[in-house]
Design a protein that fits this description.
The complex is a heterodimer. The longest helix of chain A is centred in the middle third of the chain and has 38 residues, at about 320-360. In chain A, a hairpin with a 3-residue loop joins strand 8 and strand 9 (about 175-180). Helix content of chain A is about 50%, strand content about 20%. In chain A, the strands form four sheets. In chain A, strands 17, 18, 19, 20, 21, 22, 23 and 24 form an eight-stranded mixed beta sheet that branches. Chain A has a six-stranded mixed barrel with strand order 4-5-10-7-9-8. A four-stranded antiparallel beta sheet of chain A has the order 16-25-15-26. Chain A contains 25 helices and 26 strands. In chain A, helix 10 runs parallel beside helix 13. Chain A is an alpha+beta fold. By secondary structure, chain B is α/β, with parallel strands linked by helices. Helix content of chain B is about 35%, strand content about 30%. Chain B contains seven helices and ten strands. Chain B has a six-stranded mixed beta sheet, sandwiched between helices. In chain B, strands 2-1-4-5 form a four-stranded antiparallel beta sheet, covered by helices on one side. In chain B, a hairpin with a 2-residue loop joins strand 4 (about 60-65) and strand 5. In chain B, helix 3 (about 100-110) packs across helix 4 (about 115-130), helix 3 runs parallel beside helix 5 (about 145-155) and helix 5 (about 145-155) runs parallel beside helix 6. The radius of gyration of chain B is 17 Å and the shape is globular. Classes of the chains: A alpha+beta, B alpha/beta. At the A-B interface, helix 1, helix 11 and helix 14 of A face helix 2 and helix 3 of B.
Chain lengths: ~775, ~220
């Protein structure tokens, strides 16, 4: 029987090639889009889930109340890990983790920079990052050990055996390779790591400390099997308070591995989502796209029902049960879904690299995994069932008497299921269009926001190797040679806040005030270099005012937060030093352009430095200025490559994540609209075909081409208008909720809705009117000849 | 074989109720060849559909081989139909996407006859209606007469006890029409009961008995 079904399905497909192509094509595009999204979803959900101890691994987090709000953050004090390990038998291992990037690795003539981290020796026992060569139990025991990835080993040592070889770290030390790590997979939070250094080395070079108030590293915790997270959590809660003799009031909690990637946002001490929201959103979009493609299938199948009605009648007369007819039509749609699935697979394979680039993930298809084939089969089956069930019930319900006597007629009710399905399709499409428009406007709004500094011709270079030592010489050369207008050493790039504190003290501070201030250190001339706007006071100038090394410039928010009426001359204590305010600048954006600007304290030359900002002389071309700057850096820091970043680019990077979401949303909105229009195209063709005689009669009676085109398009226009009415409130609700996540946001004007609705309407009209026009322009004699 | 008593059938729309069959009673014995005649709209096709269990009756009794089938559900009707009744239509009603062989094979698939047996029986019946040489053709590639012969072959392939023919020659020229009538007569002679709706006095003459209908009732019966 199945053979008979497949045969007739195949012949039907072949007979109406155009519609089959529309049907299968739409389904394939829908399946491919949904599959791409689901692959991404699966990738997101797999983050760090491959560790065999995933049920026992945690990251320690701190919690404390700031101005009435319980805040949670994932950096901890360096002594926390060893203390947890020593005091609680339920804790099997701990490892601290601190990134150590941009280090110059030298092997003979080979010099390169790579990203790495300091970890405790238990790190490799806790996580499933296998060593290809070496013993994970001892690989990080000595301060001179280094574990490198196989890629880094290849880059440094070629095909030679790496273990036992030495390499130079910066200009400081020599490390011996004690293990070669299999390259880290793309779905781990540690994926950027290329080498691991033992914590004992960090202690040796003086980067470690025992201060319980400096929360600067991550602490990973592995519990013994069957230990209760709750019980351990209760015991460790006050460890920081105890060890700091009450000077620190933050409590420690354990955040479980399965939540690391997707649920790391805390609100008032409880998990309140995170990336999971994005994953859910795109999961829903995948479902919608598949549904829309299935709706096309349903509509085209039921619209063409007259072609199949006779067959249904004959089969019933020949003794077919309704059940077996349902089975027949569903197996037909599964066959179609299978063909569409194969095409979708080709589309996915062809677009996966580009899609992976877009979402910045290394996504691949596991052809060797039975899980892939099972889920692929389930996907095809589900699509076939979803698409085929309604037509199957619809077609199998035909009364053989009617269809065989030729009295069977299409019903053109006011609300038939087909119309409802078109309305559903367009409602979803319009919601996605509105979402995309809102997202893009929001991004543009952030971009247009006054950022408070002049990004033009401004670059920064990280201080690596000899740069710190030679910074004065480099500065002098840049200025005296007319390459730069102004040069400033800073603690971080201007576009990133690396340090903050609630420990500042000033006159009039309330004892319970825990306002967090961003901390940014500069040597001098920051107002000039960055093009900040001075509100009062002056810029740092060490040559004129040597005491500026302990000077401070506040932004306006900081002045407000400290409650200063006359800020200049006020004294502020920080890090055991007393600083004096020399100026106030307008607020400028260091962190997210969508957030309010935090109060900021810019400390003078007594602070610390990691980068040099250079404002190029506008009289020089940028390439010229860069080349000359590189020459100077090469001279004073010969071992390191000259790497620079335009502040402009760094600022644009702030929009990357939102922009990526916007691009994805736009892409899938486009596909949704495209698939919906494909369906509409097929429906319109059928409608025109079915009404050929009516159109002929109307033309004979004097109807114009315009009147007929309007008649045929009217129905679809009405459906899209109904879809607008349904989509607008849903989209408003969804986008209003979405915009609430931004402090700095657009307001939802009616313009966005009108534009989206008009867009959908125009597309639908274009799709439908070609058929309508063709039908209207046909010679009525042809259509009425058989009468 | 067929005993219908006081059969009533109505067609209802929102505005009107039309009586299609009104207190109609007929009896068809096994092995009979009965022709049903009457003007368009008199209810003869409705009667045939009810006899063939394709349509419901509103009132009355229908005994098929002494079993009351009037209240049978869809599934039971299907079962009874596929084992006992074959249909021949005016417009042939072959599935365009299936070949001659596959069209004829269809009822055997639904009665779960094994493939080898199906092949044998289809070939036998195609030989009988002399269309074997066209077994792999599609319906559109055949003449009207040939298509109706295929339809007859399909109706008899399951060896039904009853064949219901609804104007089987209505779309055929007289030569082809006669051939089809000849076929039906031969089947009747081999023991198959035949009920045929027709407008043609010529065709009706092949029958043992003619039932004439008017306005949903039997007007008269004549023995041929």
């Amino acid at each position: 029987m199945l053979r008979n079904y497949i045969k007739i399905a195949w012949r039907n497909l072949w007979k109406s090639k155009g519609y089959s192509a529309l049907n299968i094509g739409g389904l394939a595009i829908g399946m491919a889009s949904a599959a791409l999204i689901l692959l991404w979803v699966a990738n997101e959900m797999s983050f760090d889930m491959f560790h065999s101890k995933r049920d026992r691994l945690y990251i320690a987090a701190n919690q404390s109340v700031f101005n009435g709000e319980l805040q949670t953050w994932f950096t901890t004090a360096k002594p926390l890990g060893p203390a947890l390990n020593a005091e609680f038998p339920d804790i099997a291992h701990t490892s601290r983790y601190s990134t150590y990037n941009g280090v110059l690795l030298t092997v003979g003539d080979k010099k390169l920079t790579a990203n790495g981290a300091f970890v405790d020796s238990a790190f490799l026992e806790m996580f499933d990052f296998p060593l290809l060569i070496g013993d994970k139990h001892i690989a990080l025991n000595r301060p001179s050990d280094i574990v490198i990835t196989q890629s880094l080993a290849k880059r440094l040592f070629g095909n030679e055996e790496a273990v036992g070889k030495t390499l130079q770290l910066d200009t400081l030390d020599v490390a011996t390779v004690s293990g070669v790590l299999k390259d880290l997979p793309g779905n781990t939070r540690f994926r950027d790591i290329e080498y691991l250094l033992p914590w004992s080395y960090m202690e040796k070079i003086g980067f470690s400390d025992d201060y319980w108030g400096n929360n600067s590293v991550q602490t990973y915790v592995e519990l013994v099997p069957n230990a209760s997270r709750h019980a351990v959590g209760e015991k460790i809660r006050d460890i920081v308070i105890r060890h700091s003799d009450g000077q620190q009031d933050n409590e420690v909690l354990l955040h479980a591995l399965p939540d690391w990637w997707l649920r790391s946002k805390y609100e008032n001490g409880h998990i309140a989502g995170g990336r999971i929201e994005m994953v859910r959103l795109f999961g829903v979009i995948a479902g919608f796209i598949l549904l829309i493609a299935c709706i096309n299938f349903m509509n085209l199948s039921t619209a063409r029902s007259e072609k199949r009605a006779k067959e249904v009648g004959i089969r019933k007369v020949a003794g077919a049960y309704r059940r077996s007819l349902i089975g027949q039509f569903i197996s037909e749609s599964i066959l179609l879904a299978f063909i569409a699935g194969l095409i979708a697979l080709v589309i996915v394979l062809a677009t996966l690299p580009a899609f992976g680039g877009l979402v910045e993930r290394d996504i691949s298809i596991g052809f060797d995994s039975p899980y892939f084939w099972l889920s692929g089969a389930a996907f095809v089956l589900l699509t076939g069932l979803l698409a085929g069930s309604y037509p199957a019930f619809f077609l199998s319900a035909f009364n053989p008497v009617n269809v065989l006597k030729g009295t069977f007629r299409r019903v053109n009710a006011v609300f038939n299921p087909r119309k409802i399905l078109v309305v559903i399709q367009f409602s979803i499409a319009i919601i996605l269009i509105i979402g995309t428009v809102v997202l893009h406007r929001q991004i543009q709004y952030g971009k247009d926001r006054e950022n408070g500094y002049n990004k033009n011709n401004l670059v920064y270079v990280f201080e690596m190797g000899e740069v710190t030592k030679n910074s004065s010489l480099i500065k002098n050369e840049l200025l005296s040679n007319g390459i730069a207008e102004s040069v400033t050493r800073t603690s971080s790039p201007l576009t990133e806040g690396w340090s903050n504190s609630w420990g500042f003290e000033w006159q009039g501070k309330q004892p319970d005030d825990k306002t967090v201030f961003d901390r940014f250190c500069v040597d001098e001339h920051i107002v000039e270099t960055a093009g900040l706007t001075l509100v009062e006071g002056r810029d740092f100038d060490l040559s004129k005012y040597p005491t500026d090394s302990l000077g401070i410039i506040l932004n306006e928010s900081a002045v407000k937060a400290m409650g200063f009426q006359a800020p200049i001359g006020q004294l502020i204590k920080d890090n055991g030093k007393e600083w004096h305010v020399i100026g106030v600048v307008k607020d400028f954006i260091m962190r997210s352009p969508f957030d309010p600007i935090d109060p900021l304290v810019i400390e003078g030359a007594a602070g610390w430095f990691n980068a040099i900002h250079i404002k190029f002389n506008p009289a020089l071309s940028t390439s010229d200025a860069l080349r000359k700057t590189e020459d100077i850096f090469k001279r004073y820091n010969p071992n390191y490559p000259f790497e620079y970043t335009f502040v402009d680019d760094a600022y644009a990077e702030k929009f990357a994540e939102t922009q990526r979401t916007g691009t994805l949303a736009g892409l899938f909105a486009f596909l949704t609209v495209f698939i919906s229009c494909l369906g509409l195209f097929g429906l319109a063709a059928y409608m025109a075909e079915n009404r050929t005689k009516e159109i002929g009669v109307r033309k004979v009676l004097g109807a114009s081409v315009y009147a007929i085109t309007r008649l045929l398009s009217k129905e679809f226009v009405l459906l899209v208008l109904i879809a607008c009415v349904i989509a607008f409130p849903i989209a408003y609700w969804a986008m209003d909720n979405f915009l609430q996540t931004f402090d700095y946001r657009i307001s939802l004007g009616w313009g966005i809705f009108v534009i989206s609705g008009l867009g959908a309407l125009t597309l639908a009209l274009i799709t439908v009117s070609s058929h309508a026009l063709r039908a209207a322009m046909a010679n009525p004699v042809d259509s009425l000849r058989d009468e | 074989m067929i005993k219908i008593t006081e059969l009533q059938k109505f067609y209802r729309t929102e505005e009107v109720e039309t009586v299609a069959l009104n207190n109609l009673s007929i009896h068809v014995a096994a092995g009979e060849f009965v022709a049903v005649m009457g003007p368009s709209g008199c209810g003869k096709s409705t009667l045939l559909n009810i006899v063939g269990l394709l349509d419901d009756l509103d009132n009355g009794s229908y005994l098929f081989n002494n079993i009351e089938v009037a209240k049978f559900n869809e599934r039971k009707r299907s079962d009874l139909r596929k084992h006992n009744i074959g249909f021949v239509f005016q417009s042939f009603n072959l599935i365009d996407e299936l070949t001659v062989f596959e069209n004829v094979e269809l009822p055997l698939i639904y009665t779960k006859v094994p493939a080898s047996e199906r092949k044998k029986r289809v070939e036998e019946v195609l030989e009988k209606v002399q269309i074997m040489h066209r077994r792999n053709h599609f319906p559109q590639q055949l003449s009207g007469g040939q298509q109706q012969r295929v339809a007859v072959a399909r109706a008899v392939v399951n060896n039904p006890k009853l064949i219901l023919a609804d104007e089987p020659t209505g779309n055929l020229d007289s030569n082809n029409g006669n051939e089809v009538m000849q076929l039906l007569t031969e089947l009747n002679e081999q023991g198959t009961t035949i009920v045929m709706v027709t407008h043609s006095e010529h065709d009706a003459r092949y029958a043992d008995r003619i039932i004439r209908m008017l306005d949903g009732q039997v007007l008269m019966e004549t023995v041929g």
